[in-house]
Amino acid sequence: MATMDKAPRASRSAWAQLAKRTRHKHPGWGAIALATLLSGTTVHAEYPDKPVRAIVPFAAGAGADIASRFMAEKLSAMWGKGVVVENQVGANSIIGAQQVARAPADGYTLLVPNDTTLAANPWLYARLPYVPLKDFAPIALIGETPFVLVASPRLPARSVKELVELARARPGTINFGSSGLASAQHLPMEMLMHSAHIKLMHVPYKSASDAAVGVVSDQIQVMFAGVSAVLPFLQSGRLVPLAVSTAERLAVLPQVPTIAESGYPGFRYGAWLGFVAPAGTPAAIVSKINADVNSVLRRPETRQRLTELGFLPAAPATPDAFRTFISDETERYGTLIRAAGIEQTR
């Protein structure tokens, strides 16, 4: 693994960056979007006039899937048309993304990608069958999935400190799981291993849900998992929480310390989630979906429920701000992946 002076550090929260860009670069975005929607273009004014497909390139039950289904339910109620979530799993989210990239650009097939799909995969695959900001039209950020470092109850470690001590005493004997190379579960473990100067063995699974089951069954010993996806296991005692990846403790797990508190100042990691459409989707449709997603996210009951599910909802932002954010995140992930010594698949 490449040497760094300190562990790669995540930038400010996704929604804080986007909100700032929106205020300073697009102060009149709300009026512009409204004008676009009221422009009299009948075909767009009627959108949607049939069910919308939302392709989630992750397994059912994963944190991204839970948040996606919640948002789909709210948009369905707002539009009076169903938003049907379809899980298209495989190849580090490439299968689902490729399907949407090739879909008609009419607003009726959306993708719910995370940072791996759009920001990490370009650094991992030399022959990636899509170019994120060329083949997709960014719509809106939904929020961030915070992660929790969990362990099998059979592992004699109840804190990050104890895990690190155990890993140093037994180098190469502790296995960690993820949904694949440079996935949202893999990268934070690389960050921790670099910071703590330890080596754990990586065991990639087909999905994050499968990896979590692997920890529960003690096939592997630890992993970083989306909080929303493993809450039932934590509540039942089938998984042990060691620390959370956020800068501050989570309301849903108030007794669990952060990794920064556990001896690694500055450690912060979270996977963001959003909506994109095929490139070429009419701007009026993109603006309408953006406005409606932001409307849902402004509701206090929405923010409370997403927080209860272990998800951090985003602040409203424009499609252009989301595009800039994806571009910035792609550069950040390039730095992180190179530092971790992860080679591109050809």
Automatic annotation (TrEMBL):
CDD domains: PBP2_Bug27
Residue stretches in coiled coil: none
Superkingdom of the organism of origin: Bacteria
Pfam hit, one: TctC
Family membership: Belongs to the UPF0065 (bug) family.
Official protein name in the record: LacI family transcriptional regulator
